[in-house]
Amino acid sequence: MSISPSHILYIEDHEDTKELVSLVLAEANHRVTTTSSSKDALKLAREHRFDLYILESWIADGSGIELCQRLREFDRVTPIMFFSGAAYETDKQAALGNGAQCYLVKPAHIHVLRDRVNTLIDASRNERAE
After folding, report:
1. Is 86 in contact with 109 (CB distance < 8 Å)?
2. Within the chain, where are the H helices?
3. d(Cα 46, Cα 82) in Å, to the nearest integer?
4. pTM
5. What is the pLDDT of residues 35-89, one digit of tens each?
6. I need a labelling partner for 10 at 20 to 30 A (CA). Which of 39, 84, 119, 127 fits?
C-alpha cells in the first residue's frame, strides 16, 4: 500500500526561499501550494485540505501569528509549522501559544526542515487513523 503524497500550504513572501523550500519538499514526495499573502492563504485553506501549513512570521499583508490564529478558528487539526527568520524565544512562544506545533528558525539545514515536515505530517496522519 503506497502512501499518497501530502499536500502542504506554504506561506512565504521571499521568492527565492519559497522556490528552494518547495523544491526540497517536492523531492521528498510532498505537493506544495504556495502563496505570499494571508488573504490568499485563508482562501486556499478553506477551499482545500492540507496536511500541513508552513508559515513565515512576517507576511506582506499581516503577521504569521495572526494567520495562525485565523487558521485555528476553522481548522483545529492540521499541523502548523513556522519556518521563520524571527529567532527570539518570544517569537517561538507566541507561535506555539497560538496553535503551532513546531517553530524552526531560518536558516536551517534542508534535512532538518524535511525531517520536521515529515514528522509533523506522520504524527497527524497517525492521530487521524486512531
Report:
1. no
2. 15-27, 38-47, 64-74, 89-97, 110-129
3. 19
4. 0.94
5. 999 999 999 999 999 999 999 999 989 999 999 999 999 999 999 999 999 999 9
6. 127
Residue 25, number of CB atoms within 10 A of its CB = 23
Look at residues 43, 52, 45, 58 and name the one whose alpha carbon lies nearest to residue 13.
58
Separation CA 32–CA 53 (nearest Å): 10
Q: Which amino acid is at 66?
A: E
C-beta atoms surrounding 35 within 10 Å: 19
The sign one gets for the Cα dihedral 12, 56, 49, 2 is positive
> Is the CB of residue 81 less than 8 Å from the CB of residue 103?
yes
Cell, residue 86: 524571527
